[in-house]
Backbone:
C-alpha cells in the first residue's frame, strides 16, 4: 500500500456508495454503471483483502473476462504497490480453469477423460471439425450455422445450479452435440471444454471445492456480465457449497458478449439472491449531463441509472453532432480524417481524448489508411495478431529493454524458461544459469534495435522462439500469430515504430484511438466518433426479429455512447452498393434506430450536417 | 480432548539408495523400525530426510557415487538414478496444508500427497552426461518443485542416536523450551516490564560497600596503567537483559530440590527433551491462550459464539482454553481456528533414533506406551529395545531385513487380523516383551515344555540357538495363525512345533440307542483297527489353508507339511520322548521325578511302574499332578541326552537353522 492507495481511498470515501462497496465483507455484487469508478473500488478492495484478510498459503483470486482487463487490473494493483504472491491468481476464467482446476485435479478423476499433457485444439483442426459438422448436417451456407453459435450453445447448455435457461434451436443443439463428439475423438481440448469441464468438476467433486476454498477464501470477479454460464456455475457452487466469499463487479447494461454466451441474466440472478448483498454504484464521474441523459433516454437501459455528478464537466459544449454522408463507408472515413479530427484539434481536444468506434476490424484498417494519409497519429485496439500470452510477454521484454525498472528480469526469464521446458526444446536439459545467460545476452543485445521489426526479428531469432513453439500443445496457433505480428511490424501499422511504442501497445500516447464497438468497453474519451450508424448495419440485419440479439445491440450502443465524457459524433451513409448476382445494387439505408432516438432528443439544425455541409473550422 | 492427528508418511519407495535397491513399504501414523545393526534403519530415515528435513543443505541433498547401492557398478558413469517417493496422508483437516499442496495431490480418496526426490544425470543435447543433479517435486509433475517453503509446512525432525541432550536443553536459540515459549508470542510489553524490574532489583548490588570499593580500585588501577588515556571511567552493571534474552534464560528444573538439567541423570534429561519436542510439535491451530486484542477480532468473526463458550478470561486479561471440552466442540473450534488463525504452523514428523537411550526398562515402557498410543504427532522410532516393541501396537512395526544382497522393508500396516486375534497377540507380545521381533529366526511352540526343551535339544545337536539368533516363542496354545501372519508379514523365518495328538474314533450307542462316534485321545496305538487321526495335523492343515498357503482341502504328507515349516509330533512331546527312549533315557526321567516329587517312595514307585509298563499317559499325568510340566522340563533341559529328543524336534531345529543361514548368505 503506497500513497496512491491512500489517496484513492480518500477519493472513494467521498462517495458513500463506493465506500460502502469497498467496505463490504459479505458476499457482494457491485452493479457499477459507466464512469462509476468500479475498477478503482475493485482494486482497492483486492489490495485490502490481500493485505489484511488473506494470509499465506492462501492467495487472492481475481478473475476477469479478457486479457486486456486482466492487464489493466494487474497494472492498477502494481500502482498501489501490491506485488502479487506466488499464491495469487489474477487472470482470465480460462487460465483459472486450466491452472487451478484441470491441471491439478482432473488426473484424480479418470471419469472426465482428460488426456495429459493438455493440448489445445489448433485453429486448422477446429475449422476441419466445424466443416465436417456442416457436411454431416447438409448445411451449405456457414451463415446458417456458425461456429460461434455452436460454441455459445455449448457454453449455455452446461447443467448446474443456475435457474437461467437460454433458448437455442434444435439445429444448433444437434450441431453442438456432433461437434463435441468430434472434439472428443481427437487428442485436443478447446476453451469451451476447459471451462465447462472445470465447472463440472467443481460441481461434482467436494474435495476440489474444499481445496479451492483453502486456497482462495475470496473470489473477486470483474466484468461479471461478460463471463458466461460456466463461470456463473463455478461461482454459485463455490459460494454456496464451499463457503468462498464473492466480490463481483459488473453492469448488466454493458453486457455485450452474448455471442460468447455472456448474458446479463446471470448477473441479475446474483442480485436476486438473498445471501448476496447488492450495492449499486450510480454516480457517473465521466460524462456530461447530456451524455448521461442521452444514454438513458435514448437507449432504455435497465435500472439502476447512472447519475450525473455536478461540477465534473462543462456543459456548454455541443454534445451531439449528426453527419449524414451520401454513399459508402469511404465517405465517412474521409470526413472524419479530413474535417472532424481537424475541427476537434482546433477546439483544443487532445488526440488521445478522441475515440473512433467502427463496427469491424476491416473498417478499422480502412479508417487507419485514411488517418495515415492525413498524417494523423492513431492507435489501434484490435490488431491483426492476437494479444496472446507470448505477445504480452514480448511486449514486457521490450518494455524491459527500454526501461529496466518496468519489469523484473527474473519474471521475464521465468516465462521463457517455462516455454522451453514445456515444448520439448532440447535446451530444457541445460543448466538454469546457461539458459539465463543466453536470455540475458539476447535481451541486452536487442537493446540496440530500436525499430520494432528489427527488435522482434532479433529477439525471436536469437531465442529460436518459433522453433520452440512449433507444434506447441498449449499455444497451437502461436507461430502463425508471431508471423502476423512480424508482418504488422514489417509492413503495416507497426512499421517503423519505436519499441517503446510496442511495449505500450495497450495505451495510446497522443494518438487517436480506433476501436471496434466491443473493444471500446472500458475505455473513455472526451469525444466519441461513431461510424456506420445505419439501420440494418447497427443493429445488424441478422438481429432483426431476434429480441435477445436486439437487446444486446442496444446495450452495445449504450456502451459506445457512454464512453464519451462530453461529445458524441455520429456518422451514417445513405447508400451502400451491394454485390448481387445481377450486378451491383445501390441500396438505400435508413438511419439507425439509435441515431433516430438520439436525434429526436438532441438533434437540431445547428448540429446536423451533410458531409459536404459539415464545415472545416480554420485555425486562427 | 480428542484432536486431529497430524499428517504422516503413509508410504515410502526407495530405489538404488544406500542399503536399498528397491523398496516399497506402507507406513502408519506411528512407526517403530526394528532391524539388526547395519541393515539400514538410519539410512531409511536419511531417505525421508532428503525430502523433508529443513535443516538439510543443498550439499546434503546432493549425493555422490557412495550413495548408490553397492551392487550398482559405476552408477554415475552409466546414468543410474536414485529415486525416493513419499506419500503423505492425514493432512486434509487442515485447510492450509490443502492449499499449500494442491500440486502434490495424487488421490482424493483418501486424500494423498506424493513427494519425490530424484538424483539424476544432467545430459546435454547429445545425451552425454554433464553432471548429476537432484530434483524434488510434488505430485507427478517434475515442474512442481518441492521447496523450502513447502518444508515449512510439512517436515521431519530427527533426534539422532548420539545426542547431547543436556547441551540442546541449555542452548539458547535451539532449546526446545525456548522454541515452545516463542510459539506463544508473549507480548513484548509484559517482557519489558519484567526486564526493567529485574534491572532495578539488580541495582541494589551495585550499592553494596564492597562493590563500590571494587569499582573504585579498578578505576584507579586502570587510570594509572593507561596513563594519558583520558576516558577511563569504569562502570559495573549486573544485567543487560533485552526482552528476547529474558526468554532464553528460562530453564527447566526438576524435583523438589529444583535440580538443573546439568545435574539430572542422562535418562531423565532424555525424557525431558523428548517430551518438550512432542509438545513443541503439537498442532497449534487451536490456540491455548489468546491475547485480548486478538480475541476481540476473532470473536467478531465467530457467528456461533464458540470462543466465548470455550475460553475463559485469565487474571492477566488473556483468554485461556478450558480443560474439559466435548469432542464435537473441539471439532467446531478446530474448523473455526483453521479458518481464522493465520499464525504459520509447521507439521513436523518426529523421528527418534534409539529413544530407549539411557532409560530404565520400566520408564521406556511407560513413556512410549503413552507416545505410541495417544500422541497426535506422527513419530518414527528406530529401536533395539524389546521394551519399546512390547508396547508397540501391532500395526506400527517396520522390520528392515537383508534379503539377498539388499535390505528390504516390511511393515505390519496391512496385517489383516481379527480384532480378537490382534488383542491376543498384542497381549502376548507385551507379556513376552516383544521378543518375537528380534529373532533372526523364530520357533513357535505350544507350551512350556517346548520352551525349555528345544534350546537344550539344539545344544545337543550342536546347533546352539543363540549362535544363530533364533528365539523360541511359546504361544501357550495351538492357535499359531496370527503369529504366522505376523512373521510372514515381517519376513522373519520361522518353524513351529506342535503335538500330533493321535486319536482313535470309538463307535458307541447313546441312551436312545442311536449309533454315535467320539474321539479318544491319550492312548498309544493299540492296533485296534479303529479309525484314527492326528488332531495336530488337522489343525496345521486348517491354518495353512486359511492363510492361503495351501489350497482348501489339500492333503499334505508329513514331508510336505515340514516343507511348510511345521513339525508335528506323534502324541505329545513328553509321551513322544518316553516312547523314543531306551533304558538310559527312562533312567534319567525316573531320577528327575525322584528329585522333584513332593511325596514319598510310593509315589516314585507308581511313576516308575507306569514308565516300565509303557503307560506313558499315566506317567505324564503323574508329572503334571505331582510336579508340573514346566518344572519337570526345566530340570530335564539340564540332563537331556540325544535319545530323548524326538526326531521331529531335531529336524525342525535343523530346518530353522538352515533358513536363517540361507537368508544371511
Residues:
Amino acid at each position: 500500500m503506497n500513497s496512491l492507495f491512500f489517496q484513492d481511498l480518500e477519493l472513494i470515501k467521498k462517495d458513500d456508495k463506493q465506500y460502502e462497496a469497498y467496505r463490504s465483507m459479505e458476499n457482494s455484487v457491485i452493479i457499477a454503471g459507466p464512469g462509476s469508478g468500479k475498477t478503482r473500488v475493485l482494486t482497492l478492495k483486492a489490495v485490502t483483502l490481500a493485505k489484511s484478510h488473506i494470509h499465506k498459503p492462501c492467495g487472492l483470486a481475481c478473475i476477469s473476462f479478457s486479457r486486456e482487463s486482466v492487464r489493466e487490473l494487474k497494472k492498477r494493483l502494481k500502482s498501489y504497490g501490491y506485488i502479487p504472491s506466488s499464491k495469487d491468481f489474477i487472470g482470465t476464467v480460462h487460465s483459472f480453469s486450466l491452472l487451478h482446476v484441470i491441471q491439478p485435479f482432473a488426473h484424480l478423476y479418470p471419469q472426465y477423460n482428460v488426456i495429459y499433457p493438455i493440448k489445445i485444439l489448433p485453429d486448422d483442426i477446429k475449422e476441419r471439425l466445424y466443416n465436417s459438422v456442416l457436411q454431416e448436417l447438409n448445411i451449405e451456407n456457414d451463415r446458417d450455422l456458425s461456429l460461434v453459435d455452436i460454441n455459445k450453445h455449448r457454453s449455455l447448455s452446461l447443467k448446474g445450479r443456475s435457474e437461467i435457461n437460454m433458448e437455442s434451436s434444435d439445429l444448433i443443439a444437434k450441431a453442438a452435440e456432433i461437434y463435441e463428439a468430434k472434439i472428443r475423438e481427437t487428442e485436443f481440448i478447446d476453451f469451451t471444454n476447459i471451462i465447462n469441464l472445470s465447472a463440472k468438476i467443481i460441481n461434482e467433486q467436494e474435495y476440489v471445492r474444499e481445496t479451492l476454498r483453502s486456497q482462495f477464501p475470496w473470489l473477486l470477479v470483474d466484468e461479471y456480465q461478460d463471463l458466461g454460464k460456466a463461470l456463473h456455475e463455478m461461482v454459485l457452487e463455490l459460494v454456496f457449497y464451499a463457503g468462498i466469499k464473492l466480490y463481483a463487479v459488473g453492469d448488466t447494461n454493458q453486457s455485450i458478449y452474448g455471442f460468447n454466451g455472456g448474458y446479463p441474466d446471470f448477473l441479475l440472478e446474483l442480485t436476486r439472491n438473498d445471501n448476496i448483498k447488492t450495492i449499486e454504484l450510480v454516480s457517473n464521474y465521466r460524462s456530461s449531463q447530456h451524455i448521461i441523459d442521452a444514454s438513458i433516454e435514448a437507449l432504455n437501459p435497465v435500472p439502476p441509472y447512472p447519475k450525473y455528478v455536478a461540477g465534473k464537466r462543462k456543459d456548454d459544449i455541443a454534445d451531439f453532432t449528426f453527419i449524414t454522408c451520401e454513399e459508402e463507408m469511404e465517405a465517412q472515413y474521409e470526413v472524419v480524417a479530413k474535417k472532424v479530427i481537424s475541427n476537434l484539434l482546433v477546439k483544443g481536444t487532445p488526440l488521445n481524448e478522441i475515440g473512433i468506434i467502427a463496427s469491424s476490424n476491416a473498417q478499422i484498417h480502412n479508417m487507419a489508411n485514411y488517418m495515415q494519409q492525413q498524417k494523423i497519429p492513431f492507435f489501434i485496439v484490435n490488431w491483426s495478431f492476437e494479444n496472446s500470452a507470448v505477445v504480452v510477454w514480448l511486449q514486457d521484454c521490450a518494455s524491459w529493454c527500454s526501461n529496466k525498472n518496468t519489469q523484473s528480469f527474473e519474471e521475464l526469464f521465468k516465462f521463457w524458461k517455462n516455454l522451453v521446458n514445456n515444448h520439448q526444446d532440447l535446451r530444457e536439459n541445460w543448466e538454469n544459469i546457461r539458459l539465463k545467460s543466453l536470455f540475458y545476452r539476447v535481451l541486452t543485445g536487442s537493446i540496440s534495435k530500436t525499430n520494432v521489426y528489427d527488435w522482434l526479428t532479433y529477439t525471436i531469432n536469437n531465442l529460436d522462439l518459433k522453433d520452440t513453439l512449433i507444434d506447441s500443445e498449449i499455444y497451437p496457433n502461436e507461430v502463425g500469430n508471431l508471423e502476423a505480428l512480424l508482418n504488422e511490424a514489417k509492413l503495416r501499422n507497426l512499421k517503423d515504430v519505436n519499441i517503446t511504442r510496442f511495449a505500450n501497445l495497450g495505451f495510446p500516447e497522443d494518438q487517436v484511438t480506433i476501436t471496434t464497438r466491443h473493444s471500446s468497453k472500458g475505455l473513455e474519451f472526451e469525444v466519441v466518433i461513431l461510424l456506420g450508424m445505419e439501420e440494418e448495419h447497427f443493429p445488424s440485419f441478422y438481429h432483426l426479429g431476434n429480441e435477445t440479439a436486439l437487446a444486446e445491440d442496444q446495450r452495445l450502443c449504450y456502451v459506445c455512447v457512454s464512453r464519451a465524457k462530453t461529445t458524441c459524433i455520429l456518422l451514417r451513409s445513405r447508400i451502400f452498393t451491394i454485390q448481387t448476382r445481377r450486378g451491383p445494387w445501390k441500396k438505400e439505408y435508413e438511419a439507425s434506430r439509435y441515431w433516430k432516438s438520439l436525434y429526436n432528443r438532441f438533434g437540431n439544425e445547428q448540429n446536423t450536417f451533410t458531409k459536404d455541409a459539415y464545415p472545416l473550422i480554420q485555425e486562427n | 480432548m480428542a484432536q486431529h492427528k497430524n499428517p504422516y508418511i503413509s508410504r515410502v519407495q526407495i530405489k538404488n539408495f544406500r542399503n536399498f535397491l528397491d523398496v516399497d513399504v506402507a507406513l502408519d501414523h506411528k512407526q517403530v523400525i526394528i532391524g539388526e545393526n547395519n541393515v539400514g534403519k538410519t539410512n531409511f530415515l536419511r531417505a525421508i530426510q532428503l525430502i523433508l528435513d529443513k535443516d538439510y543443505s543443498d550439499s546434503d541433498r546432493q549425493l555422490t557415487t557412495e550413495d548408490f547401492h553397492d551392487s550398482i557398478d559405476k552408477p554415475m558413469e552409466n546414468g543410474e538414478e536414485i529415486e525416493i517417493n513419499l506419500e503423505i496422508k492425514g493432512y486434509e483437516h487442515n485447510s492450509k496444508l490443502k492449499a499449500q499442496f494442491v500440486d502434490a495431490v495424487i488421490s482424493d480418496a483418501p486424500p494423498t500427497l506424493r513427494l519425490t526426490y530424484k538424483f539424476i544425470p544432467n545430459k546435454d543435447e547429445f545425451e552425454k552426461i554433464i553432471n548429476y543433479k537432484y530434483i524434488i517435486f510434488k505430485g507427478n509433475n517434475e515442474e512442481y518443485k518441492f521447496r523450502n517453503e513447502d518444508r515449512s509446512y510439512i517436515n521431519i525432525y530427527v533426534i539422532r542416536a548420539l545426542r547431547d541432550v543436556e547441551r540442546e536443553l541449555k542452548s539458547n536459540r535451539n532449546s526446545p523450551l525456548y522454541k515452545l515459549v516463542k510459539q506463544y508470542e508473549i507480548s513484548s510489553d509484559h517482557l519489558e516490564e519484567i526486564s526493567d524490574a529485574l534491572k532495578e532489583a539488580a541495582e541494589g548490588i551495585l550499592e553494596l560497600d564492597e562493590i563500590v570499593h571494587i569499582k573504585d580500585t579498578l578505576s584507579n588501577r586502570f587510570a594509572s596503567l593507561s596513563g594519558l588515556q583520558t576516558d577511563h571511567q569504569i562502570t559495573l552493571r549486573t544485567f543487560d537483559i533485552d526482552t528476547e534474552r529474558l526468554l532464553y534464560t528460562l530453564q527447566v528444573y526438576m524435583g523438589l530440590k529444583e535440580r538443573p538439567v546439568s545435574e539430572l541423570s542422562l535418562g531423565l534429561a532424555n525424557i525431558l527433551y523428548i517430551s518438550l519436542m512432542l509438545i513443541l510439535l503439537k498442532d497449534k491451530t487451536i490456540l491455548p491462550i489468546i491475547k485480548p486484542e486478538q480475541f476481540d477480532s476473532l470473536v467478531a468473526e465467530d457467528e456461533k459464539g464458540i470462543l466465548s463458550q470455550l475460553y475463559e478470561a485469565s487474571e492477566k486479561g488473556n483468554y485461556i482454553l478450558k480443560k474439559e471440552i466435548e469432542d464435537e466442540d473441539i471439532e467446531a473450534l478446530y474448523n473455526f481456528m483453521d479458518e481464522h488463525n493465520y499464525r504459520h504452523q509447521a507439521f513436523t514428523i518426529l523421528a527418534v533414533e534409539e529413544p530407549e537411550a539411557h532409560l530404565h526398562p520400566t520408564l521406556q515402557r511407560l513413556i512410549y506406551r503413552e507416545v505410541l498410543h495417544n500422541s497426535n504427532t506422527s513419530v518414527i522410532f528406530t529401536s533395539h529395545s524389546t521394551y519399546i516393541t512390547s508396547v508397540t501396537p501391532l500395526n506400527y512395526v517396520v522390520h528392515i531385513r537383508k534379503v539377498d544382497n539388499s535390505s528390504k522393508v516390511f511393515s505390519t500396516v496391512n496385517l489383516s487380523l481379527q480384532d480378537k486375534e490382534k488383542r491376543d497377540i498384542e497381549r502376548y507380545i507385551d507379556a513376552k516383551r516383544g521378543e518375537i521381533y528380534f529373532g533372526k529366526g523364530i520357533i513357535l511352540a505350544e507350551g512350556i515344555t517346548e520352551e525349555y526343551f528345544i534350546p537344550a535339544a539344539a545344544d545337543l545337536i550342536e546347533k546352539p540357538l543363540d549362535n544363530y539368533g533364533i528365539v523360541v516363542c511359546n504361544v501357550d496354545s495351538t492357535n499359531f495363525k496370527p503369529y504366522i501372519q505376523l512373521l510372514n508379514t515381517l519376513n522373519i523365518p520361522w518353524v513351529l512345533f506342535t503335538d500330533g495328538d493321535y486319536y482313535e474314533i470309538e463307535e458307541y450307542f447313546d441312551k436312545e440307542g442311536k449309533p454315535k462316534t467320539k474321539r479318544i485321545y491319550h492312548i498309544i496305538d493299540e492296533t485296534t483297527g479303529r479309525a484314527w487321526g492326528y488332531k495336530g495335523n488337522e489343525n496345521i492343515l486348517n491354518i495353512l489353508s486359511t492363510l492361503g498357503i495351501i489350497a482348501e482341502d489339500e492333503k499334505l504328507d508329513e514331508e510336505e507339511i515340514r516343507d511348510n515349516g511345521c513339525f508335528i509330533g506323534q502324541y505329545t512331546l513328553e509321551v513322544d520322548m518316553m516312547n523314543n527312549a531306551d533304558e538310559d533315557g527312562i533312567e534319567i526321567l525316573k531320577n528327575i521325578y525322584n528329585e522333584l516329587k513332593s511325596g514319598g517312595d510310593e509315589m516314585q514307585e507308581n511313576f516308575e511302574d507306569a514308565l516300565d509298563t509303557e503307560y506313558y499317559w499315566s506317567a505324564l499325568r503323574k508329572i503334571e499332578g505331582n510336579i508340573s510340566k514346566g518344572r519337570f522340563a526345566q530340570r530335564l533341559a539340564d540332563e537331556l541326552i540325544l535319545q530323548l529328543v524326538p526326531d521331529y524336534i531335531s529336524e525342525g531345529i535343523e530346518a530353522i537353522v538352515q533358513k536363517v543361514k540361507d537368508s544371511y548368505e
Q: What stands out?
A: Chain B touches chain A at residues 92, 95-96, 98-100, 102-103, 105-109, 111, 122-125, 130, 139-140, 143, 153, 339, 342, 344 (CB under 8 Å). The CA atoms of residues 104 and 323 of chain B lie 37 Å apart.
